[in-house]
Amino acid sequence: MSDHTSLDAIDRRILRELQADSTVPIAELAERVGLSQTPCWKRVKRLGDEGVIERRVALLSREKLDLGLVVFVSVKTSRHDEQWLSTFAKGVASLPEVTEVYRLAGETDYLLKVVVSDIAAYDRFYKRLIATAPINDVSSAFAMEQIKFTTALPL
After folding, report:
1. CA quadruple 15, 19, 25, 26: dihedral, nearest 10
2. In sequence order, what are the residues at sequence separation of 6 or more whose Cβ sits closer than 8 angstroms to the Cβ of residue 68?
3. Alpha helices (runs of H) in 6-150, residue ranges in sequence order
4. Burial of 16 (0-12, 13-18, 19+ CB in 10 A)
C-alpha cells in the first residue's frame, strides 16, 4: 500500500459527508452519494482499512467545558538531537492541554496549540511544560477570536 490512496469522485463525496457528520447512517450516506447500501459500506470499510479514515470522533464545545482560552506556544531550543526530541515529545504528549504540536522550519522550533480555561490554568500548564525538557525560549500568543475552525480537509 502506498502513502497516497487513489480516490474517485464517489470516495470524495463519501469523505466530505463523513467529515460533516460521521454518525450518518449508512443508508442515508449511500443515498447522499448515489450508491446502494452495500457498495457504500464497502467503500467506507476500504477507506478505513487503507487509513484514509483514521478514526471517528466527537467534536466538543470548548466553551461549554470551560476551556475557552486557546494559546499558541512557540518553543525554541538549542538542542536538536534525538534524545532531546524524544524527551520533549513524550513530555508534551503527556500534557492534556496540548491539542496539537508541530516541528517547524524557521526561527521557531516547535508550535503548540494549548487549550485551557483561563490565564491561571495556562500558568500551571506553563510550569509543567518548561519541566519537560531544556527549552531556550517560550513565547505565548493568546487567541482573541476564532475566525475559522474546521476539522474538514479540502477534498
Report:
1. 10
2. 62, 117, 118
3. 9-20, 26-33, 37-49, 82-93, 119-129
4. middle
What's the pLDDT at 1? 41
At residue 5, the pLDDT reads 77
pLDDT (tens digit, 9 = 90+) per residue, 103-151? 999 999 999 999 999 999 999 999 999 999 999 999 999 999 999 999 9
- What pTM does this model have? 0.88
- Contact between 36 and 10 under an 8 Å Cβ cutoff? The reply is no
For 88, the grid coordinates are 520533549
Q: Are 17 and 24 in contact (CB under 8 A)?
A: yes
Mean pLDDT of the chain: 96
